[in-house]
Amino acid sequence: MVSITIKDVLPWREYEKIRMNEIRRISEIKKSRRIELGDRLSLLFENKDTVLHQIQEMIYLDRLEKEKDIEEIIRIYSTLLPGNGKIKATLYIYAYSMDDLVNVYKTLNKVYNSVFLKVVSKFIQGEPEAGREQGESFSTVQYLTFDLQGERSTNMEIHVLHENYKVTAKIPEELAKKLLKEVYDES
Q1: Residues 176, 181: Cα–Cα separation, whole Å
Q2: Of 1, 3, 7, 20, which residue is least crowded by CB atoms under 10 Å?
Q3: Domain ranges of the chain
Q4: What is the dihedral of CA 62, 68, 70, 73, to 10 degrees?
């Protein structure tokens, strides 16, 4: 399984020197891993590069230097790494103003429970990370896990099947091949 260790992470002062180049590099990687799901949602399929970048940013922004603090950040974000037959993705829920956000909370309540990966004809529900709800509101960033249950086809689609929001998007074959390689640790 893919992992990130403290040896993979740069001290924040070193990272600061290359940060803008890293942000540009990761932005390019994310472009090919993001699927737009209408005007309200997008799904980013995580991999070692995207997760390491998040870790590196947290260390930089918090100016972390103690090994135990850095290891804690690595532990937290490593749950986003694909592997063991599971695809990991971040669901972004868009709102364009505070009034719009209130509307999103009302009309798209629990939309993160309505995201499915279709592999050939099998629908696999994305399992959201627990603890990201706050009463009637919810986080507009949700982490989903799709357990492929042994499926290996590159014929993949994302389906959002919410009562107020329905979207289907085909996953490009090149991305589907990458996802399979990552979740099954194939070189």
Answers
A1: 9
A2: 7
A3: 6-183
A4: -90
